[in-house]
Amino acid sequence: MYFAVMLITNPQKTRRILLAEELENWFMDLFDEEYEDILEGTFKDNQEIYIDRIIDKYLEITGVSMTATDSYSKSVIDKAVKTASEIQETTWRNIVTVPLSKSKDEWFPEDRMAEFIKSGIGFGTAMFATAELAKWLGRERANLIALNEANWKWNNEEYFDALETYKTKIWHTALDEKVRLTHMSLEGVQLPVNEPFHVGSSLMMFATDSSLGASISEIANCRCTTEYKK
Questions:
Q1: Does the pLDDT of residue 106 top 80, yes or no?
Q2: Is residue 60 classed as helix, strand or coil in its secondary structure?
Q3: Residue 70 to residue 3: CA distance in whole angstroms
Q4: 98 beta partners
């Protein structure tokens, strides 16, 4: 359904769906390993390894080499490095220290996390910690990341292809109640292909673009599309 409402062709939808399925399963495998590291107390030590693996996955799905210097490859590398770091920073921030109570006045140190989960000390606290782990290392988060990144991958590639052939671009939304106001205001806006859209306070070359520093609030779960015209 995420891709169904987009104003793109069926082949465009199909390749996004296939990549999203691949990425969702890949992130679940990664999250499973991270969960094991939490239990073993080695999660902190392996953060850079996880970041490098996420970067490598971006390079794999785009066919880009880390040493490439063309504009498209640089856009992929920059995105890979930024997103990999953001994913791990978010994971770290939300599960390394777990609140001992919902008031969050006390915190559970990372070096006792494994013992805490295994022993189940304090039923309410144990349940809260389990819920947090499920939230940040679970299927739903893997799915959300996969949908966004599969969409970005193809949007980015289509944009760079368009630079060679097309002169203008048009922003389209999903035209439903879920569309952000900042995005709805751009419905039908047409610009030269090499000029950015003003999306709220952010600049974006195409829907889901982060190369100009767009806020995550304008990118996450975005279902807008960019149409290119000669």
A1: no
A2: helix
A3: 29
A4: 108
**β 202-204/197-199 pair status:** antiparallel
The Cα 208–Cα 214 span in angstroms is: 9
DSSP 8-state code for residue 49: H
Collapse the DSSP code of 166 into the 3-class scheme (helix H, G, I; strand E, B; otherwise coil) and give the result.
Answer: coil
Q: CA dihedral defined by 67, 71, 73, 75, rounded to 10 degrees?
A: 120
Residue of 180, 176, 221, 175 whose CA lies nearest to 197: 180
CA pair distance 69, 71, nearest whole angstrom:
7
Q: Taking the model in full, what pTM does it have? A: 0.85
- One-letter amino acid identity for 1? M
Quick one: pLDDT at residue 118?
57
Tell me if 200 sits within 8 A of 218, measured CB to CB.
yes
Name the token pair of 129. 């910690």
| Token duo for residue 9 | 């062709």
Indicate if the pLDDT at residue 18 is higher than 60: yes
- Report d(CA 17, CA 23) in Å as an integer: 10
For residue 118 the two structure tokens come to: 């295994």
Block residue for tokens 């990372």: 110
Residue 203 CA to chain centroid, in angstroms?
18
Cα–chain-centroid distance for residue 117? 28
How far, rounded to the nearest angstrom, does the alpha carbon of residue 181 sit from its chain's CA centroid?
A: 21
Taken in order 111, 114, 117, 121, is the CA torsion positive or negative? negative
